[in-house]
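Today's session is about reading a structure prediction critically. Students often jump straight to the picture, but the first step is always the sequence itself: look for stretches that repeat, for charged clusters, for runs of hydrophobic residues. Only then move on to the predicted structure, which in these notes is written as discrete structure tokens rather than atom positions. Here is the chain we will use throughout the hour.
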Amino acid sequence: MSTKTSELLADAAPRAVAVVRAISDDQFDLPTPCADYSVRDLLGHLFQVVVNFQELAARRPVDWADKTDRLTDGWRDRFAAETQRLVTAWADPAALEGVSPGMGLPQETVGEMALIDLTVHAWDLARATGQPYEAAPAVIATLVAFMDRMGEMGQRMGAFAAPVTAPPNATPLDLVLTRMGRHPHWSPS
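Below is the predicted structure for this chain, in token form.
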């Protein structure tokens, strides 16, 4: 059984896992495109996203304030396993029905938020640690459609920064990142 959301997550998940697995512990203190987050902080946040969005698929409450350190022994393997659980959680068609009791948004939108976080934060971590990152065209198309519908509200709520100007020859991923306030050619130096 699968859904469009789980199929998109299944495409994004191994890309994110590959970036995460390639991060060395000595890169934890590097800055990221998310100005308030070091690599370690963003890894912790992304791990929390992967776990919490499993719960949101099942309409269970989540605690975004929980700051449990998940970056302990074996964390890369646990991240990969939890990311697979995220894909599985959104494969149930019931996960996309109705409105999220915790977020007050359509469940389908909540699933897209999981995809956005997984994709964009994988890009953030790749940029911070000097890794390549590509998103699939279908994932990019979903991010564009999401920003068309929810981008302004996301900016008002602080989820996205103000848009920035796209560079010449911007890729489709670059274009959606600029809509979220990210500079596609950001580097830690």
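Discussion point for the tutorial: The CA atoms of residues 113 and 146 lie 8 Å apart.
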